[in-house]
Write a structure and sequence with these properties.
This protein is of the alpha+beta class. It has helices spanning about 10-25, 40-50, 75-80, 85-100, 105-120; strands at about 30-35, 60-65, 70-75. Helices cover about 50% and strands about 15% of the residues.
Length: about 130
Amino acid sequence: MPSGDGFTDAQVREMSQALSSASRDTGLHFSVFVGPVDRPIRTYAERLHAALGDSAPAGVLICVSPGDREMEIVTGAESGRRLNDRNCALAAMSMASTFSGGDLVGGVVTGLRMMADIAGRVHVEQ
């Protein structure tokens, strides 16, 4: 999807479902930002992650700037124990591959699913 194009309702639903599923299954707080960012992207992504407030330690933020062809993944103290830098780099490479084929939504969904699989399911006592 070219920079500046909006998402369709179906695309928003697809990403929302993937976000909800990843968060529910892992107990982590996944979030996604897609759009123009202040430079450098890492600093911008870290500010967005910090804005998660009390959810930041268990937070995983995917920040994608299509116009700059850049992405960052930021994890918190808790989520970082389950998703190390290597895991995030593998998810980012998979996302970038899908993005290069012109599928921004598919790349985000793929990354969310990969990271949720790596982080593992949360066990709830009943």
